[in-house]
Amino acid sequence: MKTLCALWIAVLFVTSGFAADSKSVSYKSGDETVQGVLYTPSGKGPFPAIMVIHEWWGLNDWVKEQASKLSDQGYVTLAIDLYRGKVASTPEQAHEIMRGVPEDRARRDLQAAFDFLQSQPNVKKDRIGAIGWCMGGGYSLDVALEEPTLAADVINYGHLATDPDALKKINAPILGLFGAQDQGITPDDVHKFEAAMKQLGKKIDIKIYDDAGHAFENPNNKTGYRPADAADAWQRTVSFFVANLKK
Alpha-carbon torsion 21, 22, 26, 28, what sign? Predict the structure, then answer.
């Protein structure tokens, strides 16, 4: 686990005609008020939108940069903070904070984030997607499992499910990006997930990178970062969101 996920980066920019503005936002999650960072492209909306879900480190600069990059592609993006302001600096701290997040609270926060985006006047309410990495990749799948109107979902080496009763609830097309050398989410796990989805007639696109392990998209993973695979994963992500959120 010590090579997982990230702190902050400068990676693989794909230029476009958009320039995102960012601001901190607050919204209700049950009886609590939670925080996030909202990125809005310049120009006239309404725009499609994307929920951006952090790794086990928390809402750090790397995740914010991913949200900004996606907003540069013409999306309103919301970088979600499931840790209530905490950001880990060591794997041990990340593990401790992650274990302290109640599952029901995290799912409530994710639903609140989706509802917040839907409430924005410059967001296309039927064109909201989700993306996450590591822990956030698993939560991205959870959003697809819980929210029937989600329009697109990207899972970057996150936990998976194979229960047909759960998977049949998914309506969003899925893009899954994984490493063949990942010891946590193994190729066998990925193939089982893909097979279960296809058996249910769900839209799914899976890519397993032969030379990559966990967190291969993050340059802060000094021993596990795979720049060529990360660039390919980014291009696949951009194309996937264009196909499903801008159609």
Answer: positive
Record the pTM. 0.92
In terms of residue numbers, what domain contains 78? Answer: 21-245
Indicate whether 121 belongs to any domain: yes
In a domain? residue 128: yes
Query: From the first residue on, what is the mean pLDDT of each consecutive set of 10 residues in the chain (247 residues)?
Result: 33 41 97 97 95 98 97 98 96 97 97 98 98 98 98 98 96 98 97 98 98 96 96 98 95
10 three-class SS: coil
Q: What is the DSSP letter of 87?
A: -
The total domain count for the chain is 1
Angle made by CA atoms 217, 53, 58, in degrees to the nearest 5: 85
Task: Identify whether the C-beta of residue 58 lies closer than 8 Å to the C-beta of residue 86.
Answer: yes
Six-digit token pair at 187? 């190729």
CATH of the domain at 126: 3.40.50.1820
- Note the pLDDT tens digit of each residue in 222-245: 999 999 999 999 999 999 999 999
Report if residue 14 sits inside a domain.
no
DSSP state, residue 170:
-
